[in-house]
């Protein structure tokens, strides 16, 4: 599929591998030992310029924990000034005053993960004492500032209070609360090598992910399928290039031309109105979830 047939509309920008949490299920394998990688703020700004020139509409800053990157305010302002809609996916434990001001100034949307209505259980998942209190406090602050916020409750262990967690976010005033299961990537794979069959099949369809070393992936979970590096080639050459064509061919060989499974709702801010499943469903395929109730999910996507 050529770049003309497959317009690039959205990109995850994984600006750092550093995170103050150390969740066992982290698909990016980020941790307090992670780094900001090889891209400077100037490099990221150049990438953002190329995305805008390609006609992209949205970017989502992720990590690691993107709020730990000192250049995040500048990058948000640059993306906003380039006409891109911005979402930041954060654990919301470390938001300094400058970031709150930038969020408001640039119309940023926020997204966060939430694991339980109890501090003990949430903190045991994140392995960061006090993370529940900080996240919950900053969720309340975001809502008080009228900053759009969506929450995702990821089921990571047996007996987890996922429904109570979703209900807690809804009670706080979060209008869009989705659920997901653990994805077997990164630390969650427990050493198993990822395969194309583990993906949903929508990889590189109007979207890509760019990591802190400059690698370009067909999606945030398909980081084992590198299609180029922005430090070696311009993004317009990578998107629709030979390597991407080969990766798409491999994905199509496994999933077919019309993959139907949902993209994980926590990661993609443009997810459609079908809404994610509650975590207890254990899968994310809308063809198999007719009649299954969702928790606090509105009829329209947050956009």
Give an account of the 3D structure.
Keywords: Iron, Iron-sulfur, Metal-binding, S-adenosyl-L-methionine. A nine-stranded mixed beta sheet has the order 6-5-4-3-2-1-7-8-9, covered by helices on one side. The chain has helices spanning 41-53, 72-81, 97-106, 119-126, 131-144, 162-172, 235-238, 242-255; strands at 10-14, 58-62, 85-89, 109-114, 149-155, 176-181, 207-210, 215-217, 228-229. It contains eight helices and nine strands. Helix 6 (162-172) links the parallel strand 5 and strand 6 (176-181). The protein has 303 residues and is of the alpha/beta class. The two termini are 27 Å apart.
Order of helices and strands: EHEHEHEHHEHEEEEHH
What structural class do the secondary elements suggest? alpha/beta
Task: Quote the average pLDDT.
Answer: 86
The N- and C-terminal alpha carbons lie at a distance of: 27 Å
Number of DSSP-assigned strands: 9
Low-confidence stretches: 260-268, 270-303
Cα-atom radius of gyration: 18 Å
Can you give the helix content as a percent range?
Answer: 25-40%
Share of residues in strands: 5-15%
SSE map:
Elements: E1 10-14, H1 41-53, E2 58-62, H2 72-81, E3 85-89, H3 97-106, E4 109-114, H4 119-126, H5 131-144, E5 149-155, H6 162-172, E6 176-181, E7 207-210, E8 215-217, E9 228-229, H7 235-238, H8 242-255
Feature tags:
single chain; 303 residues; alpha/beta; 9-stranded mixed β-sheet; 8 helices; 28% helix; catalytic activity; iron; Aldolase_TIM; rSAM_sf; iron-sulfur
Q: What's this entry about, in short?
A:
The protein is an alpha/beta fold. The chain has eight helices and nine strands. Helices cover 28% and strands 14% of the residues.
């Amino acid at each position: 599929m050529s770049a003309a047939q497959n317009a690039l509309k959205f990109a995850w920008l994984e600006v750092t591998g550093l995170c103050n949490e150390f969740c066992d299920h982290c698909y990016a394998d980020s941790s307090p030992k992670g780094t900001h990688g090889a891209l400077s703020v100037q490099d990221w700004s150049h990438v953002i310029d190329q995305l805008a020139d390609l006609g992209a509409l949205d970017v989502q800053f992720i990590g690691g924990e993107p709020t730990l990157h000192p250049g995040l305010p500048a990058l948000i302002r640059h993306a906003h000034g380039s006409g891109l809609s911005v979402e930041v996916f954060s654990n919301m434990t470390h938001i300094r005053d400058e970031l709150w001001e930038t969020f408001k100034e640039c119309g940023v949307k926020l997204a966060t993960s939430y694991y339980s209505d109890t501090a003990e259980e949430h903190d045991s998942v994140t392995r960061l004492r006090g993370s529940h209190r900080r996240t919950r406090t900053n969720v309340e602050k975001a809502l008080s500032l009228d900053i759009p916020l969506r929450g995702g409750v990821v089921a990571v262990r047996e007996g987890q209070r996922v429904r109570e967690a979703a209900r807690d976010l809804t009670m706080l005033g979060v209008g869009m609360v989705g659920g997901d299961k653990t994805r077997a990537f990164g630390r969650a794979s427990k050493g198993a090598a990822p395969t194309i069959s583990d993906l949903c099949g929508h990889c590189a369809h109007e979207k890509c992910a760019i990591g802190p070393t400059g690698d370009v992936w067909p999606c945030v979970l398909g980081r084992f399928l590198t299609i180029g590096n922005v430090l070696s080639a311009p993004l317009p050459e990578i998107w629709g290039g030979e390597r991407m064509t080969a990766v798409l061919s491999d994905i199509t060989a496994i999933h077919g031309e019309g993959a139907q499974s949902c993209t994980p709702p926590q990661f993609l801010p443009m997810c459609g109105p079908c809404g994610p499943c509650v975590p207890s469903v254990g899968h994310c395929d809308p063809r198999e979830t007719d009649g299954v109730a969702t928790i606090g999910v509105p009829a329209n996507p947050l956009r």
